[in-house]
Fold this protein.
Amino acid sequence: MNDTIVAISTTTGAGAISIIRVSGDRSIDLVNQIFKEKDLTKVPSHTIHYGHIEYKGKIEDEVLVSIMKSPKTFTTEDVVEINCHGSIVVTKKILEILLTIGCRLAEPGEFTKRAFLNGRIDLIEAEGVMDLINSKSESEKKLALNQIEGKVSNLIKDLRQKILEVLAQIEVKIDYPEYEDIEEVTYTDLKENVSLVEEEIKRIIKESENGKIIKEGIKTAIVGRPNVGKSSLLNNLLQEEKAIVTDIAGTTRDIVEGTIIINGVKLDLIDTAGIRKTDDIVESIGVNKSLETINKADLILLVLNNNEELTEYDKEILDNIKDKKHIIIINKIDLETKLEEIKDNNIVKISALNNKGIEELKNKITEMYNLEEIESKDATYLTNARGLSLLKQAEEVIKEVNRGITNKEPIDMIEIDLKRIWELLGEITGETYQEELINQLFSQFCLGK
């Protein structure tokens, strides 16, 4: 934290400009050594200056240099950003010069890590930065921005405050039992306050499942026997010829993937090999992959042929997906109906050949996952696995608290569990953390951020 770090913050490659970011106590002084038109150590904070980068008498590039002085910067340290021309050669040369005169190459995510360690942001906000960089839909962007703006952090901080108030009451009772005018912490009072915390934790966990859908999307497997129209369905949903379509059974031998957005939520579509018994080694591998995909998918789209009776393989697949989220798609409705009636609440009839019923299928997915509500709500959720796991741990500990209250265990024993919940919530925001976790988390960030 005492050294001055530097990295290229823009994508490496030819472009109009590149940005080289420098942060640390010596950042202004070091850049000033190679910027000759003006003394950067004397300019006001948050100003931009035109000039040239010059090293050992040679001009390297024409640049704009932004000066931002501590503490009103992203890292809370002095920060300098050099906007140079987007040539890979020019950008790397300026970086090389800065490394030569005293900067250290930043580790992945080190600027954001410094922002966290210096108290500029918490862990939820830091993870929001990475989520925003990786966002692929408007909903993902909105979710990430809410994290960056602290809306999600406030949910957790409010919970910690409620627990702190309960702990304070317990401490008063334990430390000053002689004061009769101090409100007594009875088991009834404790149960009431703990119930409020428990309800809030459960609500956040439940709503955060929506956040997971927005962030990770819905892994959707298109399954069925060969030649029922799986690849045609995939092509219709993607509106491109992604999968090969023929009348020959077993054409799709491996997994074909694509992505669509429905109501701001990403669906990762996987067209699997037709499930049937086969002596073809390559096709057999594809069939096995299909069966594995069914187990891993969030949503199963089972395609059946309206023009054929159910086979044993169809019945087997129906049995395999009955306990998973699924939609049964009856394809080829333009042909004579030979398929017997199937009792299921999630059936959509389509003609992939004629592009009929595709909108009805999208509407069914929207209804099943309540995507319209997810899209319209203010997306204030925990979306990362780390935070959600900690919150679920807190939920388990609060069950222990409730058992302790019911069994009228000593108040100081119940207090230990309440403190554990308070600490777990603190790990979510980073108010309590382990250095190893922090290093691992920020190592996943991109270089220069």
Q: What stands out?
A: Residues 242-254, 274-286 have pLDDT under 50 and may be disordered. Residues 217-376 form a domain with the Rossmann fold fold (CATH 3.40.50.300).
